[in-house]
Amino acid sequence: MLARQSGPDAVRQPVSVVGPREASDAQLVCARRVGQLLGALGVPVLCGGKNGVMAAVSQGVSECGGIVVGLLPEEDTQLANPYLTVAVPTGLGIIRNALIARAARIMVAIGGGLGTTSEMALALQWGKPVLAIHGAPEVPGYRPFADEASLLAALLDELIACA
After folding, report:
1. Looking at the predicted structure, is the pLDDT value of residue 114 above 80?
2. Cα separation, 63 vs 57, whole angstroms
3. Alpha-carbon gap, residue 105 to 20, rounded angstroms
4. What ranges do the domains of the chain cover?
């Protein structure tokens, strides 16, 4: 079930962007560009709210005037990245990964390890499209991309399909 995404009564369901806290330069650049695209389109972004890919996507969204929500594992916001529009201190630790996966209509995975793997697997279990790049874990059912242009084009296609 997808919420209506346009018109005066629109409820915009976010896109989740997931990836590692310690990311490569290529992963950071890609995350920022994904954030810029989503921010420019007015699509809210949901992430883990910390450093690395999460901070880079948040920065991109912020630069384009968009909304980015960080679901933090801690019970406070002290470790939140500075680009978040909203920081939610869940106190749930890694269990918050389920919220990041469930609340989104689409997931983009940029690199990652075990945390990203769990988020991707949960999103796929719930029937969400998962687009992946830059060494994201291989999870059955995900859509891997070799280059950023293809990823961004596929993301636009998914956004249109969900509208």
Report:
1. yes
2. 10
3. 21
4. 27-162
